[in-house]
Amino acid sequence: MISDIKVAPSILAADFSRLGEEIIAVEKAGADMIHLDVMDGHFVPNITFGPVVIKSIRKVTNLPFDSHLMIENPEKYIGDVADAGVDILTVQMETCVHLQKVLSQIHECGMKAGVAMNPHTPTEFLEYVMEDLELILVLTVNPGFGGQKLVKSVVPKIRKVREMIDRSGRDIYLEVDGGINSKTCKTVIEAGANLLVAGSAIFGTKNYKSAIEDLRK
Ligand code: DX5
Ligand code: ZN
Q1: What is the rounded CA–CA span in Å between residue 85 and residue 189?
Q2: Does the beta carbon of 146 sit less than 6 angstroms from any atom of ligand 1?
Q3: For the segment 186-211, what is each residue's pLDDT rounded down to a tens digit?
Q4: Does residue 12 line the site of ligand 1, with CB under 6 A?
Q5: Residue having the nearest C-alpha atom to atom 6 of ligand 1
Q6: Which ligand approaches the C-alpha of residue 43 most closely?
Q7: Closest ligand relative to 196 C-alpha
Q8: What's the sign of the alpha-carbon dihedral 196, 69, 34, 100?
Q9: What is the mean pLDDT of the chain?
Q10: CB–CB of 86/107 below 8 Å?
């Protein structure tokens, strides 16, 4: 039974010329954490920002920073991201040959550890790292850009991951990311998600508070 749905606005859809103000606005509107999409132009066909920007926005809010690394060789940046003030660090399963080791390194740097999976990536690998993580991110779009449509075939995977988490008995967030809005949120919550990332469905509206409330309903 999922009772506590958390919402993490993705700043990818924010107005970057007023980034600090945008973060303060979603904090006031009831956001639970801030989702930070780091992209390198290799793993995904887009480039965003890195530790320098994260460190700078760390000053404007006390909300937890949930950072999603869509980069190759993520292990090289774990220390920098931790120093910048990230609380939960998620790496893409497809980028980690030594996934368990990377998750341990994230813990050693004082952060919670997460694993993200592209829509086509199977859940089987997860079985062997359940003890090593606090968050599983099921991508509901092909990563790289905001404002895309949810890939419906991923919904059964959310259910599968929910079962794995419940079986493990561990307190693990099931985060969904991509195409989440007031219409699709019902489907993903019913499938077992309890942490919703939303970019355009929040920053693309005028009233952040009602946008966040609509997602949680
Ligand atoms: C996709 C990113 C998402 C993105 C979601 O590559 O990981 O976090 O910002 O954007 P929306 O909510 O607009 O689909
Ligand atoms: Zn993301």
Answers
A1: 29
A2: yes
A3: 999 999 999 999 999 999 999 999 99
A4: yes
A5: 143
A6: 1
A7: 1
A8: positive
A9: 97
A10: no
